[in-house]
Amino acid sequence: MRSFKPFKDTAGRLELDLRKELNKFMFGASDEIGKGGLFILRKTDTRSGIVYPNSEADLIQCECKDRPENEPEIDYKCDKCDGEGYLFKDIIVPGYKTNRFEYQDVEKYKQWGKHTISMSFFYVEYFDPISHYDKILEPTIDLEGKIVTPVEILLSHNIHMAERFRGDHGRTEYWRLSCFSE
Ligand SMILES: [Zn+2]
């Protein structure tokens, strides 16, 4: 009778370690060329006790937004919030970007299916919550892949959907962010 032998030399763990695999994919290994880059996650601050913001009321408004129009100054960007109107932290994250064109079906004020829009997808290694109040900024990178200082922002991406990928034990491994680019 034929019987299946278990694999040898496994230490009991057969599942991929996603975090390790993604890191290998992005930064390379002896058998793989790195394909990733560095991006800036503009993480909007939330009020104390709020882990995941559900509305703008959960965010911390910048004092520049506290004007009669309730809009941040756009022409002369505020030093504190860079014109965002809310306080945030910029965090450097490793990631991988892809682009594609999609039918316009998400913005209510435009007719469905009439236009195609450019969307970018980012796979970023980040282990805490990301919401659509956060942004991905693409900085200028030097030939070695390092962020040029002083930081120069090439593109700013509004996060439309943030999808969390978890590995074993529910640990967040990375995020897939679908973004509209400004
Ligand atoms: Zn401000």
In short:
By secondary structure, the protein is mainly beta. It is 5% helix and 34% strand. It has one helix spanning 18-27; strands spanning 37-44, 88-103, 116-124, 135-139, 153-166, 172-181.
Explain how this protein is built.
Helix content is 5%, strand content 34%. The chain has one helix at residues 18-27; strands at 37-44, 88-103, 116-124, 135-139, 153-166, 172-181. The N and C termini lie far apart (65 Å). It has 182 residues and is mainly β. Strands 1-2-3-6-5-4 form a six-stranded antiparallel β-barrel. The longest helix is centred in the first third of the chain and has 10 residues, at 18-27. A hairpin with a 5-residue loop joins strand 5 and strand 6. It binds zinc ion.
Percent of residues in helices comes to under 10%
* Annotation field: number of helices: 1
**Oligomer designation:** single chain
Strand order of the largest sheet: 1-2-3-6-5-4
Class from secondary-structure proportions: mainly beta
Largest sheet: 6 strands, antiparallel, barrel
Describe the SSE topology.
Layout: H1 18-27, E1 37-44, E2 88-103, E3 116-124, E4 135-139, E5 153-166, E6 172-181
Antiparallel strand pairs: 1-2, 1-4, 2-3, 3-6, 4-5, 5-6
The structure holds zinc ion.
Entry keywords:
1 helix, six-stranded antiparallel β-barrel, binds zinc ion, 182 residues, mainly beta
